[in-house]
Specification:
The chain has 165 residues and is of the alpha/beta class. Helices cover 30% and strands 19% of the residues. The strands form two sheets. A four-stranded parallel beta sheet has the order 1-2-3-4, sandwiched between helices. The longest helix is centred in the last third of the chain and has 18 residues.
Amino acid sequence: MPAQGCEIVNLSFGTDRRASEELAEAIRALEKAGILLVGAAGNDGRGGAVDTPGKYPEVLAVAAINRRDRLARFSSRGPEVDLVAPGAGLFSLAPGGRFCRMSGTSMAAPHVTAAAAMLLSVRPGLYPAAVRAHLKHTAEWLPQIHASAQGAGLLRADRLLREEP
């Protein structure tokens, strides 16, 4: 467990450009420090591969589903996707203390980050690999979504907290 108490980092950003070596080194260092990394898969749609940093093996990549439990049109897909979570038409904060609807895998990734934080609050001391494995083990397979687009399936926080890791 990291000395400063940080156990999870949410990476709700991405780029389809070649990643810098500095970013890759930072990702590896965080993972080596025992920090779970959760990232957005990207918003490049049907033809789009998973963006950096979501494509790194150290990052748990999250794609987005819509309200009908279908992959959101904008969501990137590929073998790097680990889970899916709601990411279309969600309420978020906006400048000036307002709220707005937003969509994107950057909206989906925080669901997984929050679920992992809840798990660590009731099961302190779990290593990132165990948290990651339990997130995947308790996910719900969505037969209407191709395997390469959903990874292990839909995040199920209820199962995550109910079942033993």
